[in-house]
Design goal:
342 residues; alpha/beta; Rossmann fold; elongated
Length: 342
Amino acid sequence: MKKILVVLMTAALGLSMLAGCTTKEETGSAAGSDKKTEDTADKGDGKYKLGITIQSLENDYWAGVFGEVERMLKEKGWEYTLVDCKDNSATQIGQIENFITAGCDMIMVHPSDPKAIEDVCKEALDAGVKVMCWDDKMENTTVNWVLDNTELGKTIAGPAADFINAHYSEDNKAEVCVIGYPQTPILLERENGILEGLKGAEGKYEVVANIEGLEANDAQTNVETVLQAHPDCKVFVTVSAGGDIGSNQALLTKYNNNIPEDCGIFSPDATEQQMRAIKKGKEASNTTVGFEGSNSRTATACVDLYDKVLSGETFENDDHNIYRPFVVINAENVDEYLADYE
């Protein structure tokens, strides 16, 4: 995986460079009110200082999106630091404290544990720093950029249920593996949504394994173990890009690059690697649910929201939680989204 270049904001920040981390149709983009806050961070030169802390840069989805975010921030001439916390709340609290000390105009957090960072995010707000949360509905933030993860899980599972209905029956049930990551509350919500959505093929499948696999390497190892115990398991439904990429590699190895037509993987995130696998039509990756679409579209929407927050727009009541759109991507429409990478 490509490493992400991290630009240090100032030597005083004291952070090391680190390398490395999810509406049924497209319904809109991030939006807020047109009102301005009195403590707006707007600057005459339009240049800002950002601190960004995310769970993990080892995750294919996050690595891809934030490679694009970095490119856009460089084009704007903004000063920023991008770090991951290795999914450790204590580390993330320290990173946020350093961002406050460094005089950031805005902090974006992708929480390892949202409850654990509420207090330090309140410290940031009290210090006049804008706070944007990606993924969780936090209290002490300027705005939260979130997904309805239960509905997302159902949307991931919908094409899987259709696939099962097309290839299996009550007399020939599909063996299904669900790849989750229950330590993270929103991913547990997503997994529960998947289990609910699979009921669209009621009576034609059996979940024979429920494993973890947020990162591709872990997913591949765990899927290989599943395939040893359940060699006829051919349908894999996952909460992350890593689960898709890892299980795809495990299945390509098992079937010597000749994937059976009744074998498929259904996932979120829509990374370039996932979509190219779908386009080939000869791999197990079958359908992925993207949010804004490609990595570049997500990065554009993210940076647009940075602009709104930093320009002083207020996000109150229902507007405090901005729900992201998502779209099902399969062989029929994958070229539209892959075009962003050409």
